[in-house]
Amino acid sequence: MSNLPSEPEFEQAYKELVSTLENSSLFEKNPEYKKALKIASIPERIIQFRVVWEDDKGEVQVNRGYRVQFNSALGPYKGGLRFHPTVNLSVLKFLGFEQIFKNALTGLNMGGGKGGADFDPKGKSDNEIRKFCCAFMSELGKHIGADTDVPAGDIGVSGREIGWLFGQYKKQTKLWEGVLTGKGGTWGGSLIRPEATGYGVVYYVEHMIKYASGGKESFSGKKVAISGSGNVAQYAALKVIELGGTVVSLSDSKGAIIATTDKGIEAELIEVIAKLKVERKQLSEVASTSDFSSKVKYVDGARPWLHVGEVDVVLPSATQNEVSKEEAEGLIKAGAKFIAEGSNMGCTQEAIDVFEADRKSKKDQAIWYAPGKAANAGGVAVSGLEMAQNSARIKWTSEEVDEKLKDIMKNCFENGLQTAKTYVTPAEGEYPSLVAGSNIAGFSKVAAAMKDQGDWW
């Protein structure tokens, strides 16, 4: 990769995967997989295009649009669209690369991809966002389809934007098909889709807790630190509360709120936050109101990790690299026993190294880390279930989708756990490495499919 411009986010994701593969017996048992890794690390296709749109003043604006179609060995490319000023090829390649193996772990027929634009929805009118979505889909629509590439939402792309994108695709192609997921419930969307990533990460951690405690413990009575305040964080928090846990933090890009009572951040406050985020406002705008100030404190410009005090479970659910080495060490000192990424690549490599070293040295008293490609697979899993419903022109109930989600998250956990035991044999009393197990399980499945299809031999 030396002849390419620096792509720090992608290089981090690539090295994180490779380090676990190389420190296992995978290449010893399957030396030919080194060739598969070299091929799988290059996207099958990168589409880059300009997006020209008109603002409310009648002035022409232009943004860069992208779609990274990374790997289709297991099914149509599948991964979200992100509208955010930080979007570039490095970020999308990192997200698309992670998506390949995350999708593999779900057991559903989905390849990996990611896309978006460096468009910033903040400060834009609804009309401007709609115009941008139509202009964006005018080009993207040439490269996607229900059996080719099925994007979903991501940061900056909610159900509203999916609706505008879908409408433009339908006008261009005359096709009503499952080309996007996260659609409205009355026109092809799946129930539980908005909740799926947040619910899924909690279901995954449930299995971690049960395994570590021999089935004696659950979320009941656990203090849970969560970052973020979007869909993932909101629904993770609500599911934790439903299961008897106490949520002690939430955050956004400007700061964090920390619970100051034993009841924690309750469901009523989360509902207020959900409405706030729909209006694209910050937590700081409500933190000083009477409803909040008696129950939480606001820490300006900080993530919650070093401010939550004693905590049992940690769920980074905001964005990439939101847990540093220093914060990892602080969380261990605070007594955290489980950390699972609701966000993609939520922990820096240095933080992961801290967690893995603790796992090895403290055995069953250690913190246990789960990577996003396994722990937050619930969102794309229900997207896959939405694709299945669209293909069959049927609609499942909330209970049916939720049960399927629970099964998928259980399989994600057990697959990573058993694969770790096979390729990275844990010492006596040591938790298996979920990051190694998940990486190896996802990669091996994709590599085998690529070989069967003649991508390498």
From TrEMBL:
Site (Important for catalysis) location in chain: D154
Family per record: Belongs to the Glu/Leu/Phe/Val dehydrogenases family.
Superkingdom to which the source organism belongs: Eukaryota
Gene Ontology MF term list: glutamate dehydrogenase (NADP+) activity; nucleotide binding
Quaternary structure note: Homohexamer.
Tagged with keyword NAD: yes
CDD domains for the chain: NAD_bind_2_Glu_DH
UniProt cross-references to Pfam families, sorted A to Z: ELFV_dehydrog, ELFV_dehydrog_N
Binding, NAD(+): T197, N231
Keyword Magnesium recorded: no
Protein name in the entry: Glutamate dehydrogenase
Catalytic residue positions: K114
Catalysis performed (reactions): L-glutamate + NADP(+) + H2O = 2-oxoglutarate + NH4(+) + NADPH + H(+)
Domain Glutamate/phenylalanine/leucine/valine/L-tryptophan dehydrogenase C-terminal per the UniProt entry, residue ranges: 190-454
Residues annotated as binding substrate: K78, Q99, K102, G153, S383
SUPFAM superfamilies attached to this UniProt entry: Aminoacid dehydrogenase-like, N-terminal domain, NAD(P)-binding Rossmann-fold domains
InterPro entries in the cross-refs: Aminoacid_DH-like_N_sf (IPR046346), Glu/Leu/Phe/Val/Trp_DH (IPR006095), Glu/Leu/Phe/Val/Trp_DH_C (IPR006096), Glu/Leu/Phe/Val/Trp_DH_dimer (IPR006097), Glu/Leu/Phe/Val_DH_AS (IPR033524), Glu_DH (IPR014362), Glu_Leu_Phe_Val_DH (IPR050724), NAD(P)-bd_dom_sf (IPR036291)
Alphabetic keyword roster: NAD, NADP, Nucleotide-binding, Oxidoreductase
Swiss-Prot/TrEMBL GO biological process terms: glutamate biosynthetic process
Source organism per UniProt: Exophiala bonariae
One GO CC annotation: cytosol
